[in-house]
Amino acid sequence: MNNPQKENRPLHDRVALVTGAAGAIGYGVCKALLANGYRVAASDLPGAKLDGFVRDVGGAAPGRVMGVALDVTNRESVKEGFRSVAKEWGAVNAVVHNAGIALVSKLVDMDLEAFRRLERVNIEGTLLVLAEGGRFLIEQGSGGDIVIMSTKNVPSPSAGFGAYSATKAACHQLGRIASLEFAAHDIRVNMVAPDAVFSEGAYKSGLWEEVGADRMKARGLNEEELHAYYRSRNLLKAAVTGEHVANAVLFFLTRQTPTTGATIPVDGGLPEATPR
User: Which residue from 244, 265, 263 is spatially nearest to 28, judged by alpha carbons?
Assistant: First the structure.
């Protein structure tokens, strides 16, 4: 018997815009989207990093990857990003919002301008991507999917990681609100909440390049020991990869269940991250 609520949407030749693409999670997501038939607009700040990423990812998928220089903190840049993808491929069907930055600092030592930098990227950037992306998808009139990259730090914050935890919590909450506001237009908004992803293929996590040294120092560990620590603290003793995160994104994009406003944790099982 067919389930009328199960869409199991095919992905071939659909178009996805991925923000913050040129890193470990972005690489995993872009590769998975391409493998499942998507055309991928990989967006990041303009420069050699984005250009090299597009050449690398697009080499095995000619004509199915485009680079989009995009600053999520600038409204016009976000608008132009959506316009440029639609001009090239006619539509945008999905948005994977992965752009974000981190900071290590105890609250008593927090530099206010450094905190505001995280606010601009993690909160204002999410707001602009949701506002402009939502407006674009509504005007397009064919529904769509938005997946926001959250973090295990939303339900389980870490000491010294207050700026990141707080701003990503706001990012997550904006996603939940967007799921309420966009549902009438057949636009689903869901979240994926990974634990630490250090690298994927040749790509290291930009976030962990920023904060890894401090995390190692705080725990008295070298890089290999830090990776082992993160594996050991979850129930499945699993190293979380960009591919794992991408699989969670694909679950939402294929619409195998009638779901919006939900979060998939990709953390190997962290009891302290379970909502209470």
Answer: 244
Task: Name the residues annotated as catalytic.
Answer: 164
Alpha carbons 13 and 115: distance in angstroms, whole number? 40
* Domains of the chain by start residue, with CATH: 15-268 (3.40.50.720)
Closest CA to 210 of 230, 196, 189: 196
pLDDT in tens, the chain (276 residues): 344 444 555 677 899 999 999 999 999 999 999 999 999 999 999 999 999 999 999 998 999 999 999 999 999 999 999 999 999 999 999 999 999 999 999 999 999 999 999 999 999 999 999 999 999 999 999 999 999 999 999 999 989 999 999 999 999 999 999 999 999 999 999 999 999 898 888 887 766 666 656 666 666 777 788 778 888 999 999 999 999 999 999 999 999 999 999 999 999 999 999 876
Spatial separation of the C-alpha atoms in residues 18 and 212, rounded to whole Å: 24
Distance CA 71, CA 204 (A): 20
CA distances to 98, 180, 251 from 260, rounded to whole Å, are 18, 8, 12
Residue entry with tokens 């967007």: 178
Rg (the chain; Cα; Å): 18
